[in-house]
Write a structure and sequence with these properties.
- This protein has 208 residues and is an alpha/beta fold.
- It has a single domain (3-200), classed as Anticodon-binding domain (Rossmann fold, 3-Layer(aba) Sandwich), CATH 3.40.50.
- The chain is built from five helices and six strands, in the order αββαβαβαββα.
- The protein has a six-stranded mixed sheet, with helices on one face.
- The radius of gyration is 21 Å and the shape is globular.
């Protein structure tokens, strides 16, 4: 096998890997328990900390759905705090905590947007060796890479009694380019978060 063929195969493998990683469930990274929980939680209030009413509604609905599928009792803040261009505050949340008798609050928010260079998934085998050498020599080749926005998401689980964070996690994903991608992204994120919370053993499954 000549060098050109080897590089082409390597390039195609990277494309497949990129597509696969973007289509799979978004994994939470850097999960931790900053403060020790004094109890396990039975009912969670899910809050999307955003002014975007559509994103907030979708995120809260999906996470509540996945938590309930795992037999955890959860309610969405949108059912109690109006969907307006106003990020829910502590003052908005406290009355819901008392009314619904929740013992933990789970917040989700976008904490940053960054750009990254990702390789295009169209390869020219004739130019591949040149592009390979140029890019691996630390130079940017127009058309070989593109700038992609990366969203950084954070979730925090608060103990209502102490108001301390007992679980936190972050994840990164490409910015969705369509309504369909946004819905898939939100569903993947909610599923991944529910799995992580289940593994943390901080929640008590009370639904059958």
């Amino acid at each position: 096998m000549n060098l050109n063929s080897l590089l082409l195969i390597s390039g195609l493998f990277l494309v497949v890997l990129l597509i696969y990683s973007c289509s799979e469930t978004i994994a939470l990274t850097n999960t931790s328990k900053p403060n020790r929980a004094t109890k396990k939680f039975e009912k969670i209030l899910v809050v999307g900390l955003t002014k975007n009413t559509k994103n907030r509604s979708l995120a809260e609905e999906e996470l509540v759905l996945w938590l309930r599928l795992d037999n955890f009792q959860a309610v969405a803040s949108k059912d109690f705090i109006p969907l307006t261009e106003h990020t829910p505050t502590r003052e908005d949340i406290l009355p819901v905590i008392k009314k619904e008798n929740v013992d933990a609050v789970l917040t989700m928010k976008l904490i940053g947007v960054k750009t990254d260079l990702v390789s295009n998934d169209v390869f020219n085998s004739d130019a591949l060796l040149y592009e390979y050498l140029k890019t691996h020599d630390g130079e940017y080749v127009q058309g070989y890479y593109r700038n992609e926005k990366i969203l950084v998401l954070e979730c925090n689980l608060y103990d209502v009694n102490s108001e301390k964070i007992v679980f936190t996690g972050r994840s990164e994903t490409f910015q969705p380019q369509s309504e369909e991608e946004l819905e898939r992204l939100t569903d993947d994120y909610a599923k991944s978060l529910s799995i992580s919370l289940k593994k943390s053993k901080l929640l008590v499954p009370t639904l059958e």
